[in-house]
Design goal:
Blueprint: E1 2-8, E2 20-28, H1 33-46, H2 61-72, E3 77-84, H3 90-105, H4 114-129, H5 132-159, E4 168-172, H6 179-195, H7 226-231, H8 241-246, E5 249-252, H9 258-274, H10 281-289, E6 302-304, H11 311-316, H12 318-327
Parallel strand pairs: 1-4, 3-6, 4-5
Antiparallel strand pairs: 1-2, 2-3
């Protein structure tokens, strides 16, 4: 599968309300790649963009909605995580960052092998030394990657199991020399995903063919059981998350990677919707919803995240989230059972 990732927003703490930031992944089977690319080329042609990347700001609502309709006819699905930076104070972010760094090394001395202890120390230090902006991005991306691994696997194993053969991550590269950015998403993110306690375990369906992703499994007896023994953390059902994430991960120029342009248009639309920025927010919510998939009981297709309690704000935007949820794609094919 091709996983195209982009974000929208500044990820900087502010006192201004409706300062939404979002990350999103457009997850698409390889069999759809040429169709996705053709759709983006046609969009550029229609709007005389030439070699210029088409952004949401270049489109009127009718054109944007038409794009979402065409994208919705393909087999790709969208996962997204959003936060309102107006409700994330610098102190709250700093506390969360410090707690995360401390948690990484909390049981370091219980690990048997020095290289593993050293790697954990380096990971904790890297997280502790990140700028707040980068840490905020990393926090949302960690949730996003987890959702993709857990839910896209469940979705596609029922519909196109061969899609699980390879996870190709393509993330928009914002700078030509992405030193801290690249280190975070190439090194820190896989480590956090492998060692963190997930909200939900992987769900495997009886009768489905998981053989296409067998090369992502640890050999029998080689899974890092220290995560369970020392931390009480379930090992992601024997899957090598570092290999899934880092095996085929590239930071790319969105101008030359059309799938990332699709992700950019989707995540920009989600952010605008959360700010009630469309003239027709209901249609926007319905069309974006048709690109998403059920998130599970109590989980919204667009996940909301806060570094401290922001339940009042989440209640205010619930109508758009609920409308997205009402129009999202079903996760399970009715004939399947978990």
């Amino acid at each position: 599968m091709n996983i195209y990732i982009d974000e929208s927003g500044s990820f900087v703490s502010t006192r201004d309300p409706d300062s939404w930031c979002a990350v999103a992944a457009y997850v698409s089977p390889e069999s759809d790649r040429k169709k996705v690319e053709s759709l983006l080329r046609l969009l550029a042609l229609r709007h005389n963009a030439g070699s210029r990347e088409v952004k949401l700001k270049h489109l009127d609502e009718a054109a944007y909605f038409a794009f979402l309709i065409e994208l919705g006819r393909l087999n790709g699905i969208v996962f997204s995580v959003a936060t309102d930076m107006g409700y994330n104070s610098p102190d709250a972010v700093a506390r969360h960052q410090s707690k995360q760094a401390q948690g990484i090394v909390a049981h370091r001395e219980k690990m048997k092998h020095k290289p593993a202890r050293d790697a954990l120390t380096e990971l904790g230090n890297t997280v502790r030394e990140m700028t707040p902006q980068l840490y905020i991005q990393l926090s949302l991306q960690t949730i996003l990657f987890e959702k993709v691994i857990r839910l896209a696997t469940l979705y596609f194993v029922q519909r196109a199991p061969q899609t699980l053969r390879e996870f190709r991550w393509r993330m928009d590269q914002k700078d030509h020399v992405p030193t801290a950015y690249e280190k975070a998403f190439r090194t820190v993110l896989p480590g956090l995903l492998q060692s963190r306690s997930f909200d939900e375990p992987m769900i495997f369906l009886d009768g489905c063919d998981y053989s296409h992703m067998s090369h992502y499994e640890y050999p029998k007896g080689q899974a890092p059981d220290y995560l369970h023994k020392q931390y009480g953390i379930p090992v992601f059902d024997g899957l090598n998350i570092g290999k899934i994430v880092a095996g085929n991960f590239q930071l790319v120029d969105s101008k030359s990677t059309l799938g990332v342009q699709a992700a950019d248009l989707v995540v920009s639309g989600i952010r605008r919707l959360l700010r009630s920025g469309f003239s027709d927010n209901r249609t926007a919510a319905k069309l974006l919803g048709k690109l998403t998939v059920q998130g599970g009981e109590g989980k919204h297709p667009v996940a909301l995240f806060a570094f401290e309690n922001a339940s009042n704000r989440q209640t205010e935007i619930t109508p758009w989230i609920r409308l997205i949820e009402r129009h999202c794609r079903p996760m399970l094919i009715s004939s399947r059972t978990a």
